[in-house]
Amino acid sequence: MAQAVYAGFILSRQQINHHGRLQLCYWLKTDQGTIKAYVDNEQPVFFIRYSDQQQAQSLLEQENLEVQFKNVGLKHFDQEEMVACYCQNTRSYHQAKQTLNNIVNMYEEDIRHCDRFLMERFIRGGVWIQGNAVMKEGYIEITEAKLKAHRSYRPVFSALSLDIECNGDGVLFSIGLACEDYRSVIMIGDPPADNDIPEFIHWVPDESALLFALMDKVKRLDPDVIIGWNVIEFDFVVLAERAQMLGIELILGKDSQPIDVYKGNYVRVMLSGRVVIDGIDTLKNATYHFDSFRLSNVAEKVLGEKKLIEQDDRLEEIIRQFNEDKLSLAAYNIKDCELVLAIFTKLKLLEFAIVRSQLTGLELERMGGSVAAFTNLYLPLLHRSGYVAPNLGEHGLNFESPGGYVMDSKPGLYKNVAVLDFKSLYPSIIRTFRIDPMGLIEGLKVPQDAVPGFHNGAFSRTLHHLPTLVAELSEARQSAKHARDDMLSQAIKIIMNSLYGVLGSKGCRFYDPRLASSITLRGHEIMQTTRELIEKQGLEVIYGDTDSTFVKLPDEWEADKCEAEAIALVGAVNKYWEQECCSTFNLCSYLEIEFETLYHTFFMPTIRGQAVGSKKRYVGEVYVNGEPTLVFKGMESVRSDWTEIAKKYQQDIIRALFDGDCVLRITKRYIDAIRAGEVDSLLRYSKRLGQPLEDYTKTVPPHVKAARLSVLNNQSRNLSKGSIISYYMTNKGPVMHLDDSKIDYEHYIEKQIYPILMMIPDYENVLFQLTEQRFFSF
Question: What's an example of a GO molecular-function annotation for this chain (predicted)?
Answer without folding.
Answer: nucleotide binding
